[in-house]
Amino acid sequence: MSSKEDREVLQEVWAGKIPAMFSLSEQDCGNTIPDPCYLMLPRMSYLPLATEKVRNHFSSLISGEAGEMWFSCNGSPLRWHHPIGLLHDLLAGVAGQDGHLPWSITVHFSHFPVEQILPCHAREQVESVFMSSLKEADQLKHSGKVVSLMQKKDHNQLWLGLTSDKFDQFWAINRKFMEPLAGEDTFKHIPIRFYMAGNDNAMSSNIVQRLVTPGSLTQPKLVGDLVREMGWEQARLVVQGVEPDRQVPLEWLARHLAYPDNFLHVAVYV
């Protein structure tokens, strides 16, 4: 693939958005049910970074005092530390949704499910989760050498590029993570996590993570190879809203369809 085509794929993935309809929970409604709030959610971002408009829309309309804002889909609390695109891939094809758009999400300002999700009090918490995951991905790809060479301004540029939806600003730094180290042809391992679809995976038992090698330049490991290794020949795998062909090399997938934390977050429908 040429660099021009390469950039076009990256831009298409970056620009991916999900139309969503946010409705206020009945428990938080007063005498009247407020109109829903409609929003285009960026797949690459996180709910706390993309929902300030939702908070502003409902905060003056709720009955009683507003507590921590949280979201659910079909009764399942949404975990804010998962990228939005992954949450949709996991939940949109089940519980009668079947990919129906706009994605219906319930907004809550009370009865926070402390046993199921962590509260998010500040954007800095999201940044901490993002950077931790990025460091893990770099450890898998380059033994942590790219992150170790980053300066504070690089960290800031990466984070600001993500939060302000600036493709060029983000990729000016992120491209360093997408190249093998000098003298090497491939990544050491592919950062990839599999999530068993049907819920948004509060329990770690629903998340599968293995050490996955990319193969070699002459014999790259393909999606189909990995599927056979995992025993998922009959399963449907979804990443970034699409089902990758079984003949696609894993390293190509990791370069083009990874989330900003450099992980491939894959929903598995068994």
Q: Can you offer a commentary on this structure?
A:
- There is one protein chain.
- The chain is of the alpha+beta class.
- The chain has helices at 3-14, 47-50, 52-58, 84-91, 123-142, 145-149, 152-163, 167-174, 223-230, 250-256; strands at 17-24, 37-42, 70-73, 76-77, 103-108, 192-196, 207-208, 236-238, 264-269.
- A five-stranded mixed sheet has the order 2-1-5-3-4.
- A hairpin with a 2-residue loop joins strand 3 (70-73) and strand 4.
- Helix 7 runs antiparallel to helix 8.
- The chain is globular.
Summarize, please.
With 270 residues, the chain is an alpha+beta fold. It has helices at 3-14, 47-50, 52-58, 84-91, 123-142, 145-149, 152-163, 167-174, 223-230, 250-256; strands spanning 17-24, 37-42, 70-73, 76-77, 103-108, 192-196, 207-208, 236-238, 264-269.
Set out the fold topology.
Blueprint: H1 3-14, E1 17-24, E2 37-42, H2 47-50, H3 52-58, E3 70-73, E4 76-77, H4 84-91, E5 103-108, H5 123-142, H6 145-149, H7 152-163, H8 167-174, E6 192-196, E7 207-208, H9 223-230, E8 236-238, H10 250-256, E9 264-269
Parallel strand pairs: 1-5, 6-9
Antiparallel strand pairs: 1-2, 3-4, 3-5, 6-7, 8-9
Strand order of the largest sheet: 2-1-5-3-4
Q: C-alpha Rg, in Å?
A: 19 Å
Give the overall silhouette. Answer: globular
For the biggest sheet, the summary is: 5 strands, mixed
Secondary-structure class: alpha+beta
Q: What's the oligomerization state?
A: single chain
Which sequence of SSEs, written as H and E, runs from N to C? HEEHHEEHEHHHHEEHEHE
How many E-type strands? Answer: 9
* Strand proportion: 15-25%
Note the gap between the termini.
32 Å
Mean pLDDT: 91
Percent of residues in helices comes to 25-40%
Low-confidence stretches: 200-205
Helix count, DSSP H or I runs of 4 or more residues = 10
